Amino acid sequence: MRYIEWAVMFLVAGVGIALANFVGFQVNFMDSVPGILILLAISFVSVVISKLVPFKLPVIAYCSLIGLLVASPLCPAREFVIEAAGKINFTAPLTMVGAYAGISISDQIHTFVKQGWKMILIGIFVMTGTFVFSAIIAQIGLTLTDACDLTDLTRSGMSPVRSQKHETA
After folding, report:
1. What is the rounded (10 degree) CA torsion for 166, 147, 62, 1?
2. Dihedral pair phi/psi, residue 106, rounded to 5°
3. Cα distances (Å, whole numbers) of residue 126 to 102, 121, 123, 131
4. How far is Cα 57 from Cα 53, in angstroms, rounded to an integer?
5. pLDDT, tens only, 92-119
6. Of 69, 62, 58, 20, nearest in space to 45 by CA
């Protein structure tokens, strides 16, 4: 893909993110523009770096590294970057990713149907397994760092299992 195509794609994604941020989360369009521009600049620089650097990493790896650098204490623009990006609800970009994914596989639906019911079953197992194991890993991480203590949740009445004292007669 040429850089002009990437730029047009990023422009469309930026408008979509701003629209999703405005409609879904009531964030003023002009308030979200600086954060969107920062995210798109990080993405575009990542694409350019991935083409220029002989060490081949996926573009998302360069995005992550550059994002970490511009939000780290080493960067003089750190406060602005964090404040601007903080105004974007990050489920807004996910809306665009889901739309792009749907569009990209729409012409391959016949191939998917030919795979049969086994492929659907495998897809369900993969998605379920990914969700369950991600939740388990997150719970282990939260428990090990004392960020989430299950005894605090049960004492505050937030337990998913209701005890006898919470039941009404």
Report:
1. 0
2. -65, -30
3. 18, 9, 5, 9
4. 9
5. 777 677 777 777 777 777 777 777 788 7
6. 62
